[in-house]
Fold this protein.
Amino acid sequence: MPSTLTRDISPPPRQRKRRKEAGAVPPPMLAAVGAGRTRIEQHLEYFKERLSKVCRPVEEGVPRILTEDWTRLYQRNEHEHGNHFVVHQHNHPVSGVHYDLRLQFSGTSSMSFAVPKGLPGNPNSKSLGRMAIETRVHNLWNHLIESASPRTGSLLIWDTGTYTVLPRKNSSNKPPSPQTTDDDLDTDLEDKSSRHVEVEPENEKLIDAFKSRYIRLRLNGVRLPKNYTITLRLPSANNVSKTRPVRGKGRRISKALSAPQSTDSETEDRDKEADPVNVQDIDTDSDEDAQTRLHNAYPGSTNSIGSVHQRAWFILLDRASSGFVQDTETGKWIRSGSGSGSGRAEGDGFAPFLVLGREVERSVVTGRLAREVEGDEGVEGFVGRTGWVGITR
């Protein structure tokens, strides 16, 4: 009797997986979603599911946010007045390592600055200034991306949270200067005209500050210390209304992106201390379509704020608002220890920190290094631009 007729019929044998199941379409790659080549509907659920599977354990003291807390943080800002921010560490194959600061200004869109050396963290640094270059307006869901590809390099979440826009300070003995950058050295009072807008949504404050070319910004993140506050200033010489036309594959950079002209001697000194950067070197957007270049916004986002591609801003650490006071004997900035949170010398300051790059810094969401992000995405043999050095003094 054939063996096929002698097997038991109870219980029935397990069937092999159907061909349809075996040939099921795998979920889209993270990098393809991030680049807009693959469209999905539920971005938060997609990134939450993907990133939760690649989390790494980290040592005690390494900044980290739980996946559920990260999810709720984003959900709380999925509306027209959300004030979400993210700082991405980006290792691009052409422009190399830099950091992208993205600030939500509407229900769908975020302005973006490329910061080549990362955010300032030392109140007594010899290089106080940082260059910050406006890039394209991004979709809000880009705040969730952590991925890698041979074409774009690695992108990991260096920090994330919410922002607060603080009132601009006015001098008590002279009218405010549009060139003012760092209010540390005076006894400025907060602009009285700003006190009546305490209930104004933070994103609207951001829009107003952006249009005034001066943003006093507190970032409430996972990695950044409590009360961390910076100022972003667009020098008048860099306030171009539109970018030069693109010719071929190269880009002509407006002369307005040269060193700023200022009547404020302190501001001039601080601008000169900003890290030198070739604006063209951090342009990662050479493959965009004409509509993206025309509107300075990626598909799905809206440039209603008037962002201009590659305008050069300057960032400074707002030392007084970050909790530091100047020692009268040494002239150095030290932690205040007041803990008052009153608007000047708030909090206790913080221990100076350095931005150290892809070999050291881990994602606050997954705990991964850049090379681990690349490995998880199947990117092999990636060689980025070398020579990046952080500011360590």
User: Anything to note?
Assistant: The helical segments are 19-22, 30-34, 43-52, 67-75, 202-212, 265-272, 290-295, 370-376. The chain has one domain: 28-376. The longest strand covers residues 153-165. The longest helix spans residues 202-212.
